[in-house]
Amino acid sequence: MLVIVNCRADGGRAAARWERIRPLMLARLGPFQECVAPDRERVRLSIADALSRGERQFVAVGGDGTVNLVMTDLVGAASPEVLAEVTIGAVGLGSSNDFHKPRRDTLGGIPCRLDFADAIRHDVGRTVFVDADGATGVQHWLLNASVGTTAVGNWLYNRATGVVGLLKRLSASLGMIGAALLAVMRHRCVPVVLEWEDGVREGVLLCNLGVVKNPHFTGILKYDSPYEPASGDFFVHLLESASLWDTAVTLVRLARGRFAGRRTARTRRARRLALESAVPFPVEGDGEIVLARRVEFSLLPAMLAVCA
Could you tell me if 125 and 140 are in contact, meaning their C-beta atoms sit under 8 angstroms apart? Predict the structure, then answer.
């Protein structure tokens, strides 16, 4: 078992928590190899080495970004045949820990998913994007992806400057709330063209687009779609032609786990969705941000297993 630890999660507060729960993990899981992740290259090499030695159990200790990092490197390093044998567990030391919602288990009061005997198959989201310079890239995600206000909020939280930075130092939750409010204040609808899997194209004034496997996002917000890990499709939550007031109301409703029911909001299932705009826009996948002119969302069905 390879355990990848991100001590920088939650503004560096993860380090002390990891020292506290490390003995509890040893007691529950037995001996494991530990990789403390100061940089992405070290994680990538450690995962590739572990796979070559036949390791198939991996634990991400940190936030949702750490889970995404481990999953992305596994998808990049393993063949489909090997990836089908891989299981990912996690310990939530991050600021939002959406991967652990709905919460099932804890380790010393910290959310965890460490039951390798009761793993479930999980779709992996795939985002193919064309950036502002015309170069093509790929993102992978387990939880959700977004375009619009949510992506801007994640970008502001990751940068953590000004008021958002001050709030984040005080509390991760305060930082997320500050970033969300600032993103709403910077509200603007962007004209985009959506292309659905059936070939239908439509122009919309986009405020926010959520492409969702797990309805929890940004720690405190939740869509009203179910969590279906291996359904082979995702939910698309679209907020369009929304005023600043509509956007603010939607944010309050999402804090209560509600999205549907307003004229500016609509939801549908899909297996593929493309989006393009004349103006580059931020695209987020499990908290990671890129700037793109065109993006296509799809799934790798039931690609790997995650601990229950």
Answer: yes
Residue 106 DSSP one-character state: E
d(CA 144, CA 44): 23
Cβ count near 217 (within 10 Å):
26
Nearest to 210 by CA among 261, 132, 153: 153
**Residues 208-261 pLDDT 10s:** 999 999 999 887 889 999 999 999 999 999 999 988 888 889 989 999 999 999
DSSP readout, 217-264?
A: ETTTEE-SS---TTSS-EEEEEEES--HHHHHHHHHHHHTT---SSTT
Distance CA 166, CA 277 (A): 34
Candidates 96, 93, 105, 95; CA nearest to 17 is 93
Neighbours of 186 (CB within 10 A): 12
Helix (H) or strand (E) holding 129: strand 120-131
Q: Cα 99 to chain center, whole Å?
A: 8
